[in-house]
Specification:
CATH architecture of the largest domain in chain B: Alpha-Beta Barrel
Low-confidence stretches of chain A: none
Oligomer: heterodimer
CATH topology of chain A: Alpha-Beta Plaits
Structural class of chain B: alpha/beta
Number of strands of chain A: 4
Largest interface: A-B, 27 and 20 residues
Distance between the termini of chain B: 54 Å
CATH class of chain A: Alpha Beta
Radius of gyration of chain B: 21 Å
Order of helices and strands of chain A: EHEEHEH
CATH topology of the largest domain in chain B: Anaerobic Ribonucleotide-triphosphate Reductase Large Chain
Mean pLDDT of chain B: 93
Number of helices of chain A: 3
Low-confidence stretches of chain B: none
Distance between the termini of chain A: 19 Å
Helix content of chain A: 25-40%
Shape of chain A: globular
CATH superfamily of chain A: ACT domain
Strand content of chain A: 35-45%
Structural class of chain A: alpha+beta
Number of domains of chain B: 2
Strand order of the largest sheet of chain A: 2-3-1-4
CATH class of the largest domain in chain B: Alpha Beta
Largest sheet of chain B: 11 strands, mixed
Amino acid sequence: MRAIITVVGQDQVGILAAVSQVCAAHHANVIEVTQSVLQEMFVMVMLVNIDHLSGGIQGLSDSMNQLGEQKNLKIHVMHEDIFLSMHRI
Amino acid sequence: MMNMKDIMETVQMIEEEHLDIRTITMGISLLSCCDPDIDRSCEKVYQKITAYAKDLVQVGEQIEAEYGIPIINKRIAVTPIAMLVAASGGDPVKYALTLDRAAKAVGVNFIGGYSALVHKGFAAGDRELMESIPQALAQTEFVCSSVNIGSTKTGINMDAVGVMGKTVCEAARLTADRDCIGAAKLVVFCNAPEDNPFMAGAFHGPGEPECVINVGVSGPGVVRAAVAKCPDGNLTDVADIIKKTAFKITRMGQLVGSEASRRLGVPFGIVDLSLAPTPAVGDSVAHILEAMGLEQCGCYGTTAALALLNDAVKKGGVMASSHVGGLSGAFIPVSEDAGMIAAARTGCLKLEKLEAMTAVCSVGLDMIVCPGDTPAEVIAAIIADEAAIGMVNSKTTAVRIIPAIGKKEGEELSFGGLLGSGPVMPVNQVSPAKFIRRGGRIPAPLQSLKN
Protein backbone atom coordinates (compact mmCIF):
# COMPACT_ATOMS: atom_id res chain seq x y z
CA MET A 1 0.00 0.00 0.00
CA ARG A 2 1.15 3.51 -0.72
CA ALA A 3 0.17 6.87 0.64
CA ILE A 4 0.68 10.39 -0.58
CA ILE A 5 1.85 13.08 1.82
CA THR A 6 1.29 16.68 0.77
CA VAL A 7 2.97 19.60 2.50
CA VAL A 8 2.06 23.24 1.84
CA GLY A 9 3.29 26.35 3.62
CA GLN A 10 5.80 29.15 3.93
CA ASP A 11 9.26 28.00 2.77
CA GLN A 12 11.73 27.47 5.61
CA VAL A 13 14.88 25.48 6.35
CA GLY A 14 14.46 21.79 7.13
CA ILE A 15 10.92 20.97 5.95
CA LEU A 16 12.00 17.97 3.87
CA ALA A 17 14.26 16.77 6.67
CA ALA A 18 11.55 17.06 9.32
CA VAL A 19 8.90 15.29 7.22
CA SER A 20 11.36 12.52 6.26
CA GLN A 21 12.28 12.08 9.91
CA VAL A 22 8.63 11.47 10.86
CA CYS A 23 8.34 9.00 7.95
CA ALA A 24 11.42 7.13 9.19
CA ALA A 25 10.14 7.06 12.76
CA HIS A 26 6.92 5.40 11.53
CA HIS A 27 8.69 3.01 9.13
CA ALA A 28 7.16 4.68 6.08
CA ASN A 29 9.54 4.15 3.16
CA VAL A 30 9.86 7.23 0.93
CA ILE A 31 9.61 6.24 -2.73
CA GLU A 32 9.45 9.55 -4.52
CA VAL A 33 9.48 13.25 -3.70
CA THR A 34 8.46 16.23 -5.82
CA GLN A 35 8.71 19.73 -4.51
CA SER A 36 8.58 23.28 -5.74
CA VAL A 37 8.86 26.73 -4.25
CA LEU A 38 6.71 29.39 -5.83
CA GLN A 39 6.99 32.93 -4.43
CA GLU A 40 8.15 31.58 -1.05
CA MET A 41 5.27 29.10 -0.96
CA PHE A 42 6.61 25.61 -0.44
CA VAL A 43 4.69 22.68 -1.97
CA MET A 44 5.86 19.10 -1.61
CA VAL A 45 4.30 15.81 -2.61
CA MET A 46 5.80 12.63 -1.24
CA LEU A 47 4.92 9.07 -2.21
CA VAL A 48 5.58 6.59 0.59
CA ASN A 49 5.17 2.87 1.10
CA ILE A 50 3.03 2.18 4.18
CA ASP A 51 3.13 -1.63 4.30
CA HIS A 52 5.27 -1.75 7.44
CA LEU A 53 4.05 1.23 9.43
CA SER A 54 4.76 0.96 13.15
CA GLY A 55 1.61 2.76 14.34
CA GLY A 56 -0.78 2.46 11.38
CA ILE A 57 -1.70 5.23 8.99
CA GLN A 58 -3.60 7.04 11.75
CA GLY A 59 -0.38 7.24 13.80
CA LEU A 60 1.56 8.61 10.85
CA SER A 61 -1.18 11.10 10.12
CA ASP A 62 -1.33 12.27 13.75
CA SER A 63 2.44 12.81 13.87
CA MET A 64 2.34 14.75 10.60
CA ASN A 65 -0.45 16.94 11.96
CA GLN A 66 1.66 17.67 15.04
CA LEU A 67 4.63 18.56 12.87
CA GLY A 68 2.38 20.76 10.72
CA GLU A 69 1.23 22.67 13.77
CA GLN A 70 4.81 23.15 15.02
CA LYS A 71 6.10 24.45 11.71
CA ASN A 72 2.92 26.19 10.55
CA LEU A 73 2.50 23.90 7.54
CA LYS A 74 -0.52 22.07 6.15
CA ILE A 75 0.34 18.38 5.94
CA HIS A 76 -2.05 15.72 4.65
CA VAL A 77 -1.61 11.97 4.58
CA MET A 78 -3.96 10.21 2.20
CA HIS A 79 -4.16 6.77 0.67
CA GLU A 80 -2.92 6.67 -2.92
CA ASP A 81 -6.16 5.00 -4.10
CA ILE A 82 -8.13 8.22 -3.52
CA PHE A 83 -6.03 10.02 -6.14
CA LEU A 84 -5.98 7.09 -8.52
CA SER A 85 -9.74 6.70 -8.43
CA MET A 86 -10.40 10.42 -8.87
CA HIS A 87 -7.93 11.18 -11.61
CA ARG A 88 -7.52 7.96 -13.60
CA ILE A 89 -10.16 5.99 -15.43
CA MET B 1 4.03 9.39 -9.61
CA MET B 2 0.82 11.18 -10.47
CA ASN B 3 0.95 14.77 -11.45
CA MET B 4 1.22 17.29 -8.67
CA LYS B 5 -1.65 19.43 -9.94
CA ASP B 6 -4.15 16.55 -9.63
CA ILE B 7 -2.92 15.72 -6.15
CA MET B 8 -3.16 19.29 -4.93
CA GLU B 9 -6.61 19.63 -6.51
CA THR B 10 -7.90 16.70 -4.42
CA VAL B 11 -6.32 18.04 -1.23
CA GLN B 12 -7.86 21.45 -1.86
CA MET B 13 -11.29 19.89 -2.47
CA ILE B 14 -11.19 18.24 0.94
CA GLU B 15 -9.43 20.98 2.86
CA GLU B 16 -11.11 24.09 1.53
CA GLU B 17 -14.19 23.02 -0.42
CA HIS B 18 -15.79 20.63 2.08
CA LEU B 19 -15.58 17.53 -0.09
CA ASP B 20 -16.71 14.57 1.96
CA ILE B 21 -18.59 11.32 1.96
CA ARG B 22 -21.84 12.49 3.46
CA THR B 23 -23.06 9.12 4.62
CA ILE B 24 -22.43 5.41 4.66
CA THR B 25 -25.83 3.87 5.24
CA MET B 26 -26.34 0.21 6.01
CA GLY B 27 -29.69 -1.11 4.84
CA ILE B 28 -31.00 -4.00 6.92
CA SER B 29 -34.07 -6.11 6.13
CA LEU B 30 -36.20 -6.70 9.20
CA LEU B 31 -38.70 -9.01 7.46
CA SER B 32 -37.24 -11.98 9.33
CA CYS B 33 -38.12 -10.28 12.63
CA CYS B 34 -41.90 -10.41 12.06
CA ASP B 35 -43.62 -12.00 15.04
CA PRO B 36 -47.21 -12.03 16.30
CA ASP B 37 -45.90 -10.88 19.69
CA ILE B 38 -44.73 -7.25 19.52
CA ASP B 39 -42.25 -7.57 22.39
CA ARG B 40 -40.60 -10.61 20.81
CA SER B 41 -40.58 -8.81 17.47
CA CYS B 42 -38.87 -5.76 19.02
CA GLU B 43 -36.25 -7.98 20.65
CA LYS B 44 -35.49 -9.66 17.30
CA VAL B 45 -35.20 -6.21 15.66
CA TYR B 46 -32.74 -5.05 18.31
CA GLN B 47 -30.64 -8.21 18.05
CA LYS B 48 -30.53 -8.12 14.27
CA ILE B 49 -29.58 -4.46 13.94
CA THR B 50 -26.91 -4.61 16.63
CA ALA B 51 -25.45 -7.80 15.10
CA TYR B 52 -25.33 -6.56 11.51
CA ALA B 53 -24.21 -3.00 12.27
CA LYS B 54 -21.87 -3.62 15.19
CA ASP B 55 -18.77 -2.72 13.15
CA LEU B 56 -20.32 -0.07 10.91
CA VAL B 57 -19.10 3.01 12.79
CA GLN B 58 -15.66 1.54 13.49
CA VAL B 59 -15.11 0.54 9.85
CA GLY B 60 -16.29 3.98 8.73
CA GLU B 61 -13.77 5.63 11.02
CA GLN B 62 -11.00 3.30 9.87
CA ILE B 63 -11.63 4.15 6.23
CA GLU B 64 -11.80 7.83 7.10
CA ALA B 65 -8.38 7.66 8.78
CA GLU B 66 -6.74 5.46 6.18
CA TYR B 67 -7.92 7.26 3.10
CA GLY B 68 -7.83 10.74 4.61
CA ILE B 69 -11.35 11.50 3.45
CA PRO B 70 -14.01 12.70 5.92
CA ILE B 71 -17.02 10.40 6.29
CA ILE B 72 -19.54 12.58 8.08
CA ASN B 73 -22.34 10.18 8.96
CA LYS B 74 -22.78 6.49 9.57
CA ARG B 75 -26.44 5.51 9.47
CA ILE B 76 -28.88 2.65 9.24
CA ALA B 77 -32.02 2.18 7.15
CA VAL B 78 -34.48 -0.60 7.90
CA THR B 79 -37.54 -2.25 6.38
CA PRO B 80 -40.63 0.00 6.71
CA ILE B 81 -41.78 -0.70 10.25
CA ALA B 82 -45.46 -0.71 9.19
CA MET B 83 -44.78 -4.17 7.73
CA LEU B 84 -43.73 -5.45 11.14
CA VAL B 85 -46.71 -3.76 12.79
CA ALA B 86 -48.93 -5.63 10.31
CA ALA B 87 -47.74 -8.93 11.79
CA SER B 88 -47.46 -7.99 15.44
CA GLY B 89 -50.17 -5.38 16.05
CA GLY B 90 -49.69 -3.42 19.26
CA ASP B 91 -48.32 0.07 19.81
CA PRO B 92 -45.89 0.93 16.96
CA VAL B 93 -44.00 3.36 19.22
CA LYS B 94 -42.39 0.29 20.83
CA TYR B 95 -40.56 -0.28 17.55
CA ALA B 96 -39.41 3.35 17.49
CA LEU B 97 -37.97 3.02 20.98
CA THR B 98 -36.26 -0.22 19.94
CA LEU B 99 -34.73 1.41 16.85
CA ASP B 100 -33.52 4.30 18.98
CA ARG B 101 -31.92 1.94 21.49
CA ALA B 102 -30.23 -0.04 18.68
CA ALA B 103 -28.95 3.17 17.05
CA LYS B 104 -27.46 4.25 20.37
CA ALA B 105 -25.87 0.84 20.92
CA VAL B 106 -24.03 0.81 17.57
CA GLY B 107 -23.24 4.54 17.60
CA VAL B 108 -24.97 5.73 14.41
CA ASN B 109 -26.45 9.21 14.35
CA PHE B 110 -29.73 8.42 12.55
CA ILE B 111 -31.82 5.34 11.86
CA GLY B 112 -34.46 5.56 9.13
CA GLY B 113 -37.37 3.30 8.36
CA TYR B 114 -40.15 4.24 10.74
CA SER B 115 -42.08 4.23 7.52
CA ALA B 116 -45.16 3.12 5.64
CA LEU B 117 -45.74 2.68 1.91
CA VAL B 118 -49.35 3.64 1.29
CA HIS B 119 -49.34 5.01 -2.27
CA LYS B 120 -52.25 2.81 -3.29
CA GLY B 121 -53.98 2.29 0.03
CA PHE B 122 -53.64 1.26 3.64
CA ALA B 123 -52.73 -2.30 4.60
CA ALA B 124 -52.75 -3.64 8.14
CA GLY B 125 -50.38 -1.63 10.31
CA ASP B 126 -50.07 1.36 7.98
CA ARG B 127 -52.62 3.67 9.56
CA GLU B 128 -51.53 2.75 13.08
CA LEU B 129 -47.93 3.54 12.21
CA MET B 130 -48.78 6.85 10.52
CA GLU B 131 -50.83 8.00 13.49
CA SER B 132 -48.04 7.03 15.90
CA ILE B 133 -45.33 9.02 14.06
CA PRO B 134 -45.59 12.21 16.19
CA GLN B 135 -45.23 10.24 19.43
CA ALA B 136 -42.44 8.09 17.98
CA LEU B 137 -40.44 11.15 16.92
CA ALA B 138 -41.07 12.97 20.19
CA GLN B 139 -39.92 10.02 22.31
CA THR B 140 -36.79 9.16 20.34
CA GLU B 141 -33.60 10.93 19.40
CA PHE B 142 -32.26 9.12 16.34
CA VAL B 143 -35.33 7.72 14.58
CA CYS B 144 -36.38 9.16 11.22
CA SER B 145 -39.73 8.60 9.59
CA SER B 146 -41.09 8.66 6.06
CA VAL B 147 -44.34 7.83 4.30
CA ASN B 148 -44.81 7.25 0.57
CA ILE B 149 -48.23 8.59 -0.40
CA GLY B 150 -48.09 8.49 -4.18
CA SER B 151 -46.35 7.19 -7.27
CA THR B 152 -46.46 7.61 -11.04
CA LYS B 153 -47.87 4.09 -11.45
CA THR B 154 -50.55 4.29 -8.75
CA GLY B 155 -51.54 7.91 -8.42
CA ILE B 156 -51.85 9.76 -5.10
CA ASN B 157 -53.56 8.39 -2.02
CA MET B 158 -55.37 11.53 -0.88
CA ASP B 159 -56.65 9.87 2.31
CA ALA B 160 -53.01 9.39 3.29
CA VAL B 161 -52.21 12.98 2.28
CA GLY B 162 -54.93 14.18 4.68
CA VAL B 163 -53.54 12.06 7.50
CA MET B 164 -50.00 13.29 6.86
CA GLY B 165 -51.07 16.95 6.99
CA LYS B 166 -52.26 16.35 10.55
CA THR B 167 -49.25 14.15 11.39
CA VAL B 168 -46.75 16.84 10.38
CA CYS B 169 -48.53 19.44 12.54
CA GLU B 170 -48.72 17.07 15.50
CA ALA B 171 -45.05 16.04 15.16
CA ALA B 172 -44.10 19.71 15.38
CA ARG B 173 -46.49 20.40 18.28
CA LEU B 174 -45.18 17.52 20.40
CA THR B 175 -41.61 18.75 20.00
CA ALA B 176 -42.36 22.49 20.25
CA ASP B 177 -39.92 22.77 23.16
CA ARG B 178 -37.10 21.47 20.91
CA ASP B 179 -37.62 23.80 17.93
CA CYS B 180 -40.25 21.43 16.49
CA ILE B 181 -37.50 18.94 15.56
CA GLY B 182 -40.06 16.11 15.17
CA ALA B 183 -41.29 17.51 11.86
CA ALA B 184 -37.68 17.88 10.64
CA LYS B 185 -37.29 14.09 10.87
CA LEU B 186 -40.42 13.30 8.86
CA VAL B 187 -40.56 13.11 5.05
CA VAL B 188 -43.65 12.61 2.90
CA PHE B 189 -42.69 11.09 -0.46
CA CYS B 190 -44.07 10.52 -3.91
CA ASN B 191 -42.08 7.88 -5.86
CA ALA B 192 -39.83 7.16 -2.85
CA PRO B 193 -36.59 5.37 -3.80
CA GLU B 194 -36.02 2.14 -1.87
CA ASP B 195 -32.25 2.53 -1.62
CA ASN B 196 -31.86 6.17 -0.59
CA PRO B 197 -28.99 6.54 1.92
CA PHE B 198 -29.92 10.12 2.92
CA MET B 199 -31.97 10.98 5.98
CA ALA B 200 -34.64 11.63 6.96
CA GLY B 201 -36.14 9.67 4.06
CA ALA B 202 -33.97 6.55 4.11
CA PHE B 203 -35.65 3.18 4.43
CA HIS B 204 -34.74 -0.32 3.26
CA GLY B 205 -37.30 -1.18 0.59
CA PRO B 206 -38.99 -4.58 0.44
CA GLY B 207 -37.19 -5.33 -2.86
CA GLU B 208 -33.76 -4.82 -1.33
CA PRO B 209 -31.40 -7.65 -0.26
CA GLU B 210 -30.91 -8.83 3.32
CA CYS B 211 -28.20 -6.28 4.07
CA VAL B 212 -26.53 -3.70 1.86
CA ILE B 213 -24.17 -0.72 2.00
CA ASN B 214 -25.24 2.46 0.21
CA VAL B 215 -23.12 5.57 0.03
CA GLY B 216 -24.14 9.19 -0.34
CA VAL B 217 -21.49 11.55 -1.67
CA SER B 218 -21.60 15.29 -1.45
CA GLY B 219 -19.63 18.30 -2.57
CA PRO B 220 -21.58 21.48 -3.38
CA GLY B 221 -18.47 23.46 -2.35
CA VAL B 222 -16.32 21.66 -4.90
CA VAL B 223 -18.82 22.29 -7.70
CA ARG B 224 -19.19 25.95 -6.69
CA ALA B 225 -15.42 26.43 -6.72
CA ALA B 226 -15.16 24.77 -10.14
CA VAL B 227 -17.94 26.93 -11.59
CA ALA B 228 -16.38 30.06 -10.05
CA LYS B 229 -13.17 29.31 -11.95
CA CYS B 230 -15.09 29.75 -15.21
CA PRO B 231 -16.51 33.29 -14.92
CA ASP B 232 -16.81 33.94 -18.64
CA GLY B 233 -17.67 30.55 -20.15
CA ASN B 234 -21.11 29.92 -21.64
CA LEU B 235 -23.55 27.46 -20.06
CA THR B 236 -22.32 24.58 -22.19
CA ASP B 237 -18.91 25.13 -20.61
CA VAL B 238 -20.50 25.32 -17.16
CA ALA B 239 -22.38 22.04 -17.68
CA ASP B 240 -19.14 20.44 -18.80
CA ILE B 241 -17.25 21.61 -15.71
CA ILE B 242 -19.99 20.30 -13.41
CA LYS B 243 -19.97 16.91 -15.15
CA LYS B 244 -16.21 16.55 -14.74
CA THR B 245 -16.36 17.56 -11.09
CA ALA B 246 -19.29 15.22 -10.36
CA PHE B 247 -17.32 12.40 -11.97
CA LYS B 248 -14.40 12.89 -9.60
CA ILE B 249 -16.59 13.18 -6.52
CA THR B 250 -18.49 10.04 -7.43
CA ARG B 251 -15.34 8.02 -8.07
CA MET B 252 -14.37 8.72 -4.50
CA GLY B 253 -17.80 7.59 -3.29
CA GLN B 254 -17.49 4.40 -5.29
CA LEU B 255 -14.07 3.70 -3.77
CA VAL B 256 -15.23 4.28 -0.20
CA GLY B 257 -18.44 2.31 -0.72
CA SER B 258 -16.71 -0.73 -2.16
CA GLU B 259 -14.07 -0.63 0.56
CA ALA B 260 -16.71 -0.40 3.31
CA SER B 261 -18.67 -3.23 1.75
CA ARG B 262 -15.54 -5.43 1.55
CA ARG B 263 -14.53 -4.79 5.15
CA LEU B 264 -18.03 -5.33 6.51
CA GLY B 265 -18.67 -8.39 4.33
CA VAL B 266 -21.90 -6.83 3.08
CA PRO B 267 -22.83 -6.33 -0.61
CA PHE B 268 -22.37 -2.86 -2.05
CA GLY B 269 -25.64 -1.33 -3.18
CA ILE B 270 -25.47 2.08 -4.79
CA VAL B 271 -23.77 5.44 -4.81
CA ASP B 272 -26.22 8.30 -4.43
CA LEU B 273 -24.78 11.14 -6.49
CA SER B 274 -26.26 13.96 -4.53
CA LEU B 275 -25.11 17.49 -3.89
CA ALA B 276 -26.16 17.73 -0.27
CA PRO B 277 -25.50 21.15 1.22
CA THR B 278 -24.69 21.91 4.85
CA PRO B 279 -25.09 25.21 6.66
CA ALA B 280 -21.29 25.65 6.58
CA VAL B 281 -20.07 28.59 4.54
CA GLY B 282 -18.99 27.42 1.08
CA ASP B 283 -21.08 24.23 1.11
CA SER B 284 -24.21 25.60 -0.49
CA VAL B 285 -26.19 24.58 -3.58
CA ALA B 286 -27.66 28.10 -3.76
CA HIS B 287 -24.13 29.46 -4.07
CA ILE B 288 -23.50 27.23 -7.11
CA LEU B 289 -26.54 28.77 -8.80
CA GLU B 290 -25.26 32.21 -7.84
CA ALA B 291 -21.79 31.34 -9.20
CA MET B 292 -23.54 30.62 -12.52
CA GLY B 293 -24.63 34.23 -12.61
CA LEU B 294 -27.81 34.71 -10.55
CA GLU B 295 -27.77 37.69 -8.21
CA GLN B 296 -29.48 35.62 -5.55
CA CYS B 297 -31.07 32.18 -5.48
CA GLY B 298 -34.82 32.56 -6.01
CA CYS B 299 -34.69 35.14 -8.79
CA TYR B 300 -35.94 34.26 -12.28
CA GLY B 301 -33.45 31.89 -13.89
CA THR B 302 -33.11 29.80 -10.73
CA THR B 303 -35.18 26.91 -12.08
CA ALA B 304 -33.21 26.81 -15.33
CA ALA B 305 -29.87 26.96 -13.51
CA LEU B 306 -30.95 24.18 -11.15
CA ALA B 307 -32.14 22.04 -14.07
CA LEU B 308 -28.70 22.35 -15.67
CA LEU B 309 -26.96 21.55 -12.39
CA ASN B 310 -29.13 18.56 -11.55
CA ASP B 311 -28.73 17.01 -14.98
CA ALA B 312 -24.98 17.62 -15.20
CA VAL B 313 -24.39 16.05 -11.77
CA LYS B 314 -26.17 12.88 -12.90
CA LYS B 315 -24.41 12.73 -16.26
CA GLY B 316 -21.00 13.15 -14.65
CA GLY B 317 -21.65 10.71 -11.87
CA VAL B 318 -23.25 7.86 -13.76
CA MET B 319 -20.06 6.74 -15.49
CA ALA B 320 -18.07 6.96 -12.27
CA SER B 321 -20.08 4.36 -10.40
CA SER B 322 -21.07 0.78 -11.13
CA HIS B 323 -24.52 1.29 -9.59
CA VAL B 324 -26.20 4.61 -9.13
CA GLY B 325 -29.38 5.00 -7.14
CA GLY B 326 -31.10 6.79 -4.31
CA LEU B 327 -32.11 10.36 -4.97
CA SER B 328 -29.09 11.41 -7.08
CA GLY B 329 -29.10 15.10 -7.98
CA ALA B 330 -29.11 18.46 -6.24
CA PHE B 331 -30.85 18.85 -2.88
CA ILE B 332 -32.46 22.15 -1.97
CA PRO B 333 -33.09 21.99 1.79
CA VAL B 334 -33.65 25.58 2.85
CA SER B 335 -32.48 25.42 6.48
CA GLU B 336 -29.41 23.33 5.62
CA ASP B 337 -28.03 25.67 2.96
CA ALA B 338 -26.41 29.00 3.85
CA GLY B 339 -27.33 30.52 0.47
CA MET B 340 -30.96 29.39 0.67
CA ILE B 341 -31.28 30.69 4.24
CA ALA B 342 -29.96 34.08 3.12
CA ALA B 343 -32.31 34.15 0.11
CA ALA B 344 -35.31 33.17 2.25
CA ARG B 345 -34.44 35.91 4.76
CA THR B 346 -34.35 38.62 2.10
CA GLY B 347 -37.60 37.33 0.62
CA CYS B 348 -36.00 36.59 -2.76
CA LEU B 349 -36.67 32.86 -2.33
CA LYS B 350 -40.34 32.10 -1.85
CA LEU B 351 -42.27 28.89 -1.39
CA GLU B 352 -43.79 29.17 -4.88
CA LYS B 353 -40.32 29.38 -6.46
CA LEU B 354 -39.12 26.45 -4.39
CA GLU B 355 -42.06 24.44 -5.66
CA ALA B 356 -41.06 25.21 -9.26
CA MET B 357 -37.47 24.25 -8.44
CA THR B 358 -38.61 20.86 -7.15
CA ALA B 359 -39.83 19.99 -10.65
CA VAL B 360 -36.20 19.87 -11.78
CA CYS B 361 -34.19 19.04 -8.65
CA SER B 362 -33.71 15.64 -7.12
CA VAL B 363 -36.06 15.82 -4.15
CA GLY B 364 -38.66 18.37 -3.14
CA LEU B 365 -39.76 20.96 -0.62
CA ASP B 366 -37.15 20.27 2.00
CA MET B 367 -36.52 21.73 5.46
CA ILE B 368 -38.95 24.60 5.04
CA VAL B 369 -40.15 26.39 8.15
CA CYS B 370 -43.74 27.67 7.97
CA PRO B 371 -45.86 29.63 10.47
CA GLY B 372 -46.96 27.52 13.45
CA ASP B 373 -50.64 28.27 12.92
CA THR B 374 -50.68 26.89 9.37
CA PRO B 375 -53.77 24.63 9.21
CA ALA B 376 -53.23 20.88 8.67
CA GLU B 377 -55.27 21.07 5.45
CA VAL B 378 -52.84 23.63 4.00
CA ILE B 379 -49.88 21.37 4.85
CA ALA B 380 -51.76 18.45 3.29
CA ALA B 381 -52.41 20.51 0.15
CA ILE B 382 -48.70 21.45 -0.06
CA ILE B 383 -47.96 17.71 0.12
CA ALA B 384 -50.57 17.00 -2.58
CA ASP B 385 -49.16 19.66 -4.94
CA GLU B 386 -45.64 18.37 -4.47
CA ALA B 387 -46.71 14.75 -4.97
CA ALA B 388 -48.52 15.77 -8.17
CA ILE B 389 -45.28 17.24 -9.56
CA GLY B 390 -43.49 13.97 -8.79
CA MET B 391 -46.28 11.77 -10.09
CA VAL B 392 -46.68 13.54 -13.42
CA ASN B 393 -42.95 13.97 -14.04
CA SER B 394 -41.99 10.42 -13.00
CA LYS B 395 -39.56 11.66 -10.39
CA THR B 396 -39.16 11.53 -6.65
CA THR B 397 -40.63 14.47 -4.79
CA ALA B 398 -40.91 14.93 -1.06
CA VAL B 399 -42.09 17.36 1.56
CA ARG B 400 -40.29 18.04 4.80
CA ILE B 401 -41.99 21.10 6.23
CA ILE B 402 -41.78 22.28 9.82
CA PRO B 403 -44.61 24.30 11.33
CA ALA B 404 -42.86 26.57 13.85
CA ILE B 405 -45.27 26.27 16.75
CA GLY B 406 -45.87 29.65 18.40
CA LYS B 407 -43.83 31.52 15.79
CA LYS B 408 -44.72 33.80 12.92
CA GLU B 409 -43.09 35.19 9.79
CA GLY B 410 -39.79 36.92 10.53
CA GLU B 411 -38.92 34.60 13.41
CA GLU B 412 -36.55 31.62 13.06
CA LEU B 413 -36.13 28.01 14.14
CA SER B 414 -32.69 26.60 14.88
CA PHE B 415 -32.19 22.83 14.83
CA GLY B 416 -28.42 22.83 15.16
CA GLY B 417 -25.88 20.62 13.40
CA LEU B 418 -26.48 19.57 9.81
CA LEU B 419 -30.19 20.45 10.03
CA GLY B 420 -29.27 24.12 10.36
CA SER B 421 -31.71 26.94 10.96
CA GLY B 422 -34.36 28.65 8.91
CA PRO B 423 -36.63 31.68 8.85
CA VAL B 424 -40.40 31.18 9.00
CA MET B 425 -41.51 31.53 5.38
CA PRO B 426 -44.89 32.97 4.42
CA VAL B 427 -47.47 30.40 3.31
CA ASN B 428 -50.64 31.09 1.30
CA GLN B 429 -53.33 30.38 3.89
CA VAL B 430 -56.40 30.40 1.61
CA SER B 431 -58.23 27.20 2.46
CA PRO B 432 -58.00 24.01 0.38
CA ALA B 433 -59.83 22.18 3.21
CA LYS B 434 -62.79 20.90 1.19
CA PHE B 435 -60.52 19.50 -1.53
CA ILE B 436 -58.39 17.68 1.05
CA ARG B 437 -61.43 16.33 2.96
CA ARG B 438 -62.76 14.67 -0.19
CA GLY B 439 -60.07 12.00 0.16
CA GLY B 440 -59.98 9.10 -2.32
CA ARG B 441 -57.25 8.70 -4.90
CA ILE B 442 -55.96 10.90 -7.67
CA PRO B 443 -55.69 8.45 -10.58
CA ALA B 444 -52.31 7.60 -12.07
CA PRO B 445 -51.39 9.87 -14.97
CA LEU B 446 -51.28 8.90 -18.61
CA GLN B 447 -47.80 7.89 -19.71
CA SER B 448 -48.23 8.84 -23.36
CA LEU B 449 -49.48 11.96 -25.18
CA LYS B 450 -46.84 13.88 -23.20
CA ASN B 451 -47.09 17.60 -23.74
